[in-house]
Design brief:
The protein is mainly beta. It has one helix spanning about 15-25, and strands at about 10, 30, 35-40, 45-50, 60-70, 75-80, 90-100, 100-105, 110-115, 120-135. The chain starts with 8 loop residues before the first strand and ends in a 13-residue tail after the last strand.
Length: about 150
């Protein structure tokens, strides 16, 4: 029997922290409609269905959980291949990167978010109970958009 991990609650304020946090949200699923920019609060929020890499073994069952991803000190949000009228579109988060004053979130299907920030401040928190799944995300070298 696998050891069960506690829900994650992480913060990232530098590249090293962000690298770890990004690995924890790789392959998370996010409906395009579950992302919001709160300009008055300089905050960008995303609701995720996160694959729990930290407890994944080589064989099923695996698990997923609902998580919230928060970016603080956001002054501008730009979207690529994410039409606002397609709120039900499911996006798979591939990576989060940071350079200078920009956080870049890359999704499958050539979709992306570019957040202009005053400083790097990211939070991830699991919300609720995890549930089992038989499916582990796969990455094949010849699948650039999978």
């Amino acid at each position: 029997m696998r050891k069960e991990a506690a829900p994650l609650k992480m913060r990232a304020f530098d590249l090293e922290d962000l690298s770890v946090l990004s690995s924890m949200v790789q392959d998370a699923l996010a409906p395009a409609g579950d992302m919001i920019y709160l300009a008055d609060e300089q905050r960008f929020l995303i609701a995720l269905n996160r694959f729990r890499w930290e407890v994944a073994g080589d064989f099923p069952p695996f698990s997923r959980t609902h998580s919230g991803l928060r970016f603080d000190s956001v002054t501008k949000v730009e979207r690529r291949n994410m039409p606002k009228d397609d709120r039900d579109r499911m996006l798979s988060l591939l990576s989060i990167a940071y350079h200078d004053d920009t956080v870049m979130l890359t999704f499958s299907g050539d979709a992306a978010l570019r957040l202009t920030v005053e400083k790097l401040a990211v939070g991830l928190e699991d919300l609720g109970e995890a549930w089992p799944t038989q499916w582990r995300p796969e990455h094949r070298p010849d699948d650039a958009t999978d």
